[in-house]
Amino acid sequence: ANNADDPFPIWGTCMGFQLLTYLTSGENLLTDTNSTLVSYPLYFQQAYKTSKLFGSGSAETGDIINILSKENVTFNAHFYGITPKTFNNNTKLRTFYRMLTTNYDDNGKEFVSMIEAFKYPFYGAQWHPEKNNFEFVAKLGPNLHHSADAIKVTLYMAQFFVNEARKSSHKFKNATEEAAALIYNFPVVYTAGNTSYEQCYFF
C-alpha cells in the first residue's frame, strides 16, 4: 500500500514490536530480557536525530526527548527482547529500521526499545506508551508512573501516530457502515479485579 502512495502506518507495542522484528527478519531473534513491571528512561541512539518520531527539532519534541532520557516514564512488561548486537548483525533489520533507543533490563542486558522504518511509516516500542494515562491497577506496581511528564509522553506518541494515520485516504463507504464499526457499539467492562487492565472490551 505504501509503495502505491497509499499511506498505511503501523505501530507495534511490546509483543507487537517483537512481531515487527520477526516479520522483517523472517526469524525469531529474541532473547531473554527481564523487564517486567518496571519503568526506565530511554538511551537515545544517533539515528533518532534523523527520525520522523524525534527528529523534528521542535521545542515540543525536545521536551519529550528530555523527559524520556531522564525520567522513568516508559513502562516495560516483557520477558523477551532483541539486543543491539543481534539487530545490527541482521542485514534485514538494520537496513529496514533505524534503532532509535535502547534500554538495559534488570540484569544489565541491553535491548532495543524503539525502532522506526527508514522508508515506511512503521514504528515499534518495546515499552508501553499507552499505560501512563489509562492503567491504575495495583498489581502493575508502583513503577507505572502517572506524572504530568509521563502523561505528556503518552499524548505525544498518540498524537504522532494519529497524524500519520490522517495521511491515509481510507474511509467507510457511508455513514451507516462507519457507525457500525465504532467501538461505542460495545460495552466497556471494569476488569481491574481480574486482569492487569482497568477496562476491557469483549467482542
TrEMBL record:
Domain of life: Eukaryota
Catalytic activity: (6S)-5,6,7,8-tetrahydrofolyl-(gamma-L-Glu)(n) + (n-1) H2O = (6S)-5,6,7,8-tetrahydrofolate + (n-1) L-glutamate
Coiled-coil parts of chain: none
Top-rank EC class of the record's enzyme: hydrolase
Keyword Hydrolase assigned: yes
Alphabetical keyword list: Hydrolase
InterPro entries hit by this protein: Class_I_gatase-like (IPR029062), GATASE (IPR017926), Pept_C26_g-glut_hydrolase (IPR015527)
PROSITE patterns recorded: GATASE_TYPE_1, PEPTIDASE_C26_GGH
EC number: 3.4.19.9
Catalytic residue positions: 14 (nucleophile), 128
Signal peptide: none
Family annotation (Gene3D superfamilies): 3.40.50.880
Keyword Hydrolase: yes
Domain Glutamine amidotransferase: residue ranges: 7-132
Protein name from the UniProt record: folate gamma-glutamyl hydrolase
Gene that this polypeptide is encoded by: LOC102807920
